[in-house]
Amino acid sequence: MTGYSTLDAGGNTIAVRTDLQVPTRDGVTLVADAYHGTTDKPRPALVALSPYGKDLQAFALTMPPQRRPSPLWDGCIEAGDISRVVAEDYVHVIGDLRGSGGSGGEMVGNYNAGGVPLGQDAYDFIEWVAEQPWCDGNVGMIGISYFGSMQVLAAAERPPQLKAIFVSGGHFDFYETTYHGGIMWFMPRAAREGRGGDSGIAHTNVKSRMQELYAAEELDKLVEARLQDPDVAAWPNLVHVLKYPKNREFWFDIVMNNLDGEWYEERNPISLAPNIDIPVYLQIDQGRGWTIDGTIELFNTVRGPKKLDIGPYPPMQSRPFVEEHDKMFRWYDYWLKGIDNGVMDEPEVTTFVEGSREWATGSQWPPKDVEYRSLYLRPRHTLSFEPEGLDAAHAAPDGFYQAPLTVTDTVEILSWNTAPFERDTELIGTGAAHLFAEIDQEDTNFILRLWDEGPDGSHQLITSGYLKASHRELDDRTTEGNPHHPHTRAVPVEPGKIEEYVLRLYPFAATFKPGHRLKVELSNNEPLADKHNSLLPPDAFHLPVGRPVAHKIYRDATHQSRLVLPFTTRKGAEQE
């Protein structure tokens, strides 16, 4: 039953409307809570939609923001600072998506592809909000991650009263959200299942898309085929999910779909983004390369007024989410309240540059002109701007043998580093790693991380790249320093054959100060724990290789293993 009450939050009185009944076009009722000031006037509304439960979002009123690695950090409290929204004279409307929380209906598959599209529900929800007496007809949206993706799905449906969106930390290419370079990433499991400290989806009526599409006997055959992957077969949680799919419907679907294609495209915000012509502000922080990549792609796709803002490391915002509100309210004050605050006079693209601690601005990404230059892997674990002159007979490959993590807790890592830089050296953009490698199995992972290593031995992660060896094919989008893989099929590797593997290095911006080195690390599994991983959410690691693999990395005159990196061309920015 709908209720009305007031509460005190930090000395301010907030009016709360609970369990509002929001109708949709197919007869399903969604529920929402609305928070606003106590004076009797209509205000612009900021809508937050997710399946995580509106009651969970109310913790923003009582819980101090937690930063990783706090054990109180709950990745699903993402709808924003309720008190701040009300103090800025907006209505904060937080709704449960169908099949979750207090809402009716069923959710079929992630983001409800195959059932009623969640963008359609968002359209109906936004238009209902705009008609309420406490709303002045101007609607924006709020919230990060899943809430951010919902903003894009909503805007693509073009509800008339949605005037602008502000998206922070959203996920847009759904295949790349789940499989980095073809390597399964576990963080979506935490968001869906609630493992590792996250509350997860407030399931009430959700169904697997795969179980809807396939008869039981046919699905059993597909499951058995998926279990033939030794990586999957060696990981207990995945075996459990595949054997008992009704326990974890969404995660089951993701595990079963390890190749890109129609299953991901039918719900992909990037594919829908050309429909978006309202003002869009996109914000993301460094250290989350896969998300930066999708954010930039979305920025290049939407057609209306737009901003791209890439903030500083570390990668994860507080929970409850409270960051970026200053920027958000300037954006919405301009587009929803008509306040000419100069926000549209500022550059379209702003990125924080690690190392120099400066901001770079421009009208596109990257915001500065760049020249791609190669750093070659050389003997004695060094990187050089000069390629190797010796052939394979005289420049022996580097190598490592990795046993499965089911039998060892040691992750073998190869590393190479430059000499100390003598002047500020700035890099902004995407990059590539060309590795000439030989393995003795049909598949492995290549995981590469770039670090800024200080004279005192300190390390700052700059960017990363991932590639499953069987996904090594490139497609026609590939250019120098900007590789792309279709991920539409897996092609087993011929053991003992030297192949060139090209890893995409996610977008980054960094200045290497004098005395600092660029260090690159290569492994086929991630360290179980390190300084960077501790800043990420629970379960934010990748599926380890389930078989023993010997790797040889060739770096001779014929096999020029190298990094291709975007050096800015401003005076004094590049290494001589």
> What portion of residues belong to β-strands?
25-35%
Any low-confidence stretches, pLDDT <50, length ≥5?
571-576
Q: Strand pairing plus helix content: what structural class?
A: alpha+beta
The CATH architecture designation of the largest domain is 3-Layer(aba) Sandwich
Count up the helices. 15
Termini separation (Å)? Answer: 70 Å
- The count of domains is 2
Radius of gyration computed on alpha carbons: 24 Å
CATH class of the largest domain: Alpha Beta
Largest sheet: 7 strands, antiparallel
Basic shape: globular
Q: Count of DSSP E strands?
A: 26
InterPro entries: AB_hydrolase_fold, CocE/Ser_esterase, Galactose-bd-like_sf, Xaa-Pro-like_dom, Xaa-Pro_dipept_C, Xaa-Pro_dipeptidyl-ppase/CocE
Domain Xaa-Pro dipeptidyl-peptidase C-terminal: 329-564
GO molecular function, one term: dipeptidyl-peptidase activity
Pfam family, one: Peptidase_S15
Task: Supply database-style keywords.
576 residues, alpha+beta, Rossmann fold, Jelly Rolls, 2 domains, seven-stranded antiparallel beta sheet, six-stranded mixed beta sheet, 15 helices, disordered C terminus, CocE/Ser_esterase, Xaa-Pro-like_dom, Galactose-bd-like_sf
